[in-house]
């Protein structure tokens, strides 16, 4: 603040008078200078008194002569003020002096200036407006909001920050009561007791404020209060975010510390930012000594830095640490496509343990398939032949024949690659048959653990062997009584069980394990396999007599790649099915996506197509299924023709002869294109649509076939 200076207050140009001068001279000087109190000095110019206007007027009123001397009227106990007086003392003097002015003297008591009440007031006004301006700047540039209200809680003023926070301006608040704009803010204690309130939390709508409320006093009276407030909504939000980040960090650390494997996390500069207990123990380091150190100080020749640089993950690679092989993975941490760190994971289990685990997993997988089948058996959804979707003439014929065959009781053998719909056909045959009143019991000959196969089939008598259930167990043959027994993967059945099954089929009866009671059966057997049973017979792995017993009626379902009509039809069928399941509305498939689906070889047949559509619907945005959401392997051009299911040996043979395969495939394709053109009355655009391919692609194919001369009738 500006320092008080007496020169700013005093009048400098004045005239001193001597004791011998007359009243007339004094009156003339007063009139000229407009100063009503003049210093009286002696011959040494020292102040000896003051002659005032009021004493002059008094002399005139008494009829005194104008020649009366100053010494007769002057006040000699004049208030003189030293120039180095401070502000408070000066205020005192001005307040108490009788004369109404003060003479400022220097150290030699010589007058230097005069302070009159009016000059003092002027300087006070100046000072006040200066202070006001200063206050206003502080108050307006404050980050916090500030509101003043009077003792009746009426609005007095608000600063700019306050206006912004409350979204109200000064003029709109004029005349308002505090309860109008900050309802519920209690300031009574401040106004009544004169006590300040600090750190009051106040909620207003969606906002949180922190307030300090201070009383304003004048002469011991509370005349209102000042409310300083800060919007802490963001702060509260940030605090809660910080709290959740801390919680997340603790959870992450807990999970990491409890993980069996060693985990090291690095930042974008490959400095260690996190390490779990297992890894710290493994590297025999203390967490604190390794945090924020370059990763190489912990793992000498790891590729962590490389992963951080390239963003390319390294998965399940063998790395020797202290001469021991470990499986490690290094995965980049990405944020908005930028690598911001990496996770190094070391699998502590020894590799032979991993192998053992993989075997166990495989076993568990088989068991899972087995139990899944058992659960499926419980479902009594009826599958009719109409549920089998096909536009393929060969498959349509199979459906017709299956309907006729279903009416009888002959055993049926269904062959075809994996995923072509063998089980679906078996279910439909069962449902269309007189055995439909009974159950359809499935036995996956490849999934039942070898040691359980016999008891699963024939069941066992009570107490048949140690560990057996007390009351014995019904075998599948018994459960299937009056219905159908679906023997899936029959090609995987052991030779010993094959003989037992043959006996059952011949005698239509069997004996449960550990029992000598013969049970008569009335079942229809439907067997299925994706293996070439004839070849297995040739190799002595499958009994000839059983083969003929089962193959009384035989159906071979063609692979999907030979049913390109079906690709389009099934695609739309699954689209509709998964639209319903997922509650989405993917209306169509882009032409590019259709072409990709058409070009693919479908080694996994309908199951693969169903999985592709299910997955695509999961990823689809909008209402069109586009090629970008199809799995990348479908778009790799060379793979589609090479891929062939290893299961059908006939197909395997053709797969080994690419030329033959290609020409056979071409033959199929051209036949389908021509059939489509015929079905659409020669309309090629419609034919392409029916096939789910673009017109240009169809023309291109026709032209190519015509050139190669492979087009029948062209
Ligand atoms: N023509 C079809 N119409 C509708 N769905 C089909 C068709 N063919 C197969 N599917 C579906 O494809 C999946 C695989 O079919 P399924 O299990 O019958 O094949 P599979 O030949 O028995 O296979 P695997 O030999 O591997 O047991 C099932 O979900 C089935 O419903």
From TrEMBL:
GO terms for biological process: regulation of DNA-templated transcription. Keywords: ATP-binding, CBS domain, DNA-binding, Nucleotide-binding, Transcription, Transcription regulation. The keyword Aminoacyl-tRNA synthetase does not apply. GO terms for molecular function: ATP binding; sequence-specific DNA binding. SMART domains: AAA, CBS, PAS. The keyword rRNA-binding does not apply. Residues 248-299 form the PAS domain. Residues 388-618 form the Sigma-54 factor interaction domain. Residues 10-68 form the CBS domain. This is Transcriptional regulator containing PAS, AAA-type ATPase, and DNA-binding Fis domains. It comes from Desulfocicer vacuolatum DSM 3385. The lineage of its organism: Bacteria, Pseudomonadati, Thermodesulfobacteriota, Desulfobacteria, Desulfobacterales.
